[in-house]
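Question (not urgent): is this output format expected?
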Amino acid sequence: MAKSKFKDNAATFTLFALVLLGFLAVFLAFGLEGLRSIFIVFDIILFLALIYAMHQAVPYRPDLIPRPKKKQRVVTLAQTKIGKQWQEITAKLKEGSPDNLRESVLTADQLVDNILKQIGYQGEHMADRLEKIGEGGFMSSDRLWRAHRIRNEVLHSPDFELPRTLAERTIEDYAAFLREIKVLG
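Got this back:
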C-alpha cells in the first residue's frame, strides 16, 4: 500500500512540475500577458482542488440534523424466562393434538395474566385486569379480550371443540400483546 501511495504522490508531483514548466514557458514567451494567463489557469486549478477537497471531506462533516439513534434492545432475565415459556407454548401448539391445543391456550392466558399482574394491573381475575386496561391502554387490548374469551370457553365448556385454526389465532392474539409490551421480539 505504501508503494502505491508513493507512486500516486510521484505522479502528482510530476504532473505539477510539468504544469509549472508550462507556466514558465508561457511567461517567457508572452511576458506579463502570459503571467496573467498563468494566474487564471492557476486559479482554475485551485478552484478544482477546493472542490476535490470538499468532496473528500464529506464523510467527516458533522451531522447538522440530529437523527435519533436506534436503541439497542436490552434483554432481561425475566424476558428470557418468558421467551422460554412462550417457546414451550408454541411447541405444544405445533404438536396439534386437542389436549395440547387446549393446554397451549390455557398456558398462554396464564402467562399474560402473570405479566399483567407484574405490570401493576390489579383485580381478582384476569377479566378485572383487562377492564382496567380499557380501550386505550394497548393497541392489542381487543385481541387480548378475544383470546381470553376463547380461553374461558376452553376452560368452562367441557364439550367445546377447539379447532387448530382458532387455537393458532388465539395464541397469535396473545403474542401480539407480548410483542406490544416488548416482551417478545
